[in-house]
Write a structure and sequence with these properties.
Layout: E1 7-10, E2 24-25, E3 28-31, H1 33-41, E4 67-70, E5 73-76, H2 77-86, E6 94-97, E7 110-113, H3 115-124, H4 146-154, H5 162-170, H6 174-181
Antiparallel strand pairs: 1-3, 2-3, 4-5, 6-7
Helix pairs in contact: 1-2, 5-6
């Protein structure tokens, strides 16, 4: 099923000057669903089974997600895949992956879900972006445990090199030891 999807493409876009099924409207060209599908399929790998990941073979973002440029506007490839296969994404929903593989554009692996569902899914799969504020013990990138924190806090010796020596012992930086010791992190 192809959605009733129209995307405006400007003359200067990477899509070219015109499309066969488009109409000119105020210096823009309207790309119809068949043209969108044709362009999208250029980045889909050939000879893949329906149950395996179809990794986007064209331009990707640093995060690994495929991207399609239409009219100078960047659209994530998995979203285009979902819309080509299932129709428009319902208002207020995102397109999520069952497979946890950002470059995958297989519509069987995609579903519409809320931002909250996406955040829970990302957290459950330990794919949180840098700066995500999880509880210290639950954070997948943590290097200390509560046992380590208690040990650091019970040591009362201070002085030159104290945080550096503890940092080497626990495999973290002196600043991290200082933050634990002074209760700026790992609050109880």
């Amino acid at each position: 099923m192809i959605p009733d999807l129209y995307v405006k493409a400007t003359r200067r876009s990477t899509l070219g000057m015109s499309v066969a099924d488009g109409t000119r409207q105020h210096n823009t060209y309207v790309v119809g669903p068949e043209e969108l599908k044709r362009r999208f399929l250029l980045g889909v790998p050939k000879n893949r089974s329906a149950d395996e990941c179809w990794e986007w073979s064209m331009s990707r973002l640093k995060s690994g997600y495929g991207r399609v440029i239409i009219g100078g506007r960047q659209i994530r490839a998995h979203r285009v895949s979902y819309e080509v296969a299932h129709g428009r994404v319902p208002s207020g929903l995102n397109v999520l992956h069952h497979c946890d593989n950002p470059p995958c554009v297989n519509p069987v692996h995609l579903y519409a879900g809320t931002q909250l569902e996406n955040c829970r899914d990302v957290y459950a799969r330990n794919r949180m972006p840098t700066g995500f504020q999880a509880k210290a013990e639950e954070h997948p990138m943590r290097k200390l445990s509560w046992e380590d924190v208690r040990e650091i806090r019970t040591r009362t010796r201070r002085g030159r090199g104290f945080f550096a020596s503890l940092g080497r012992e626990f495999g973290v930086t002196p600043d991290q030891i200082s933050n634990v010791y002074n209760r700026k992190s790992w609050a109880e």
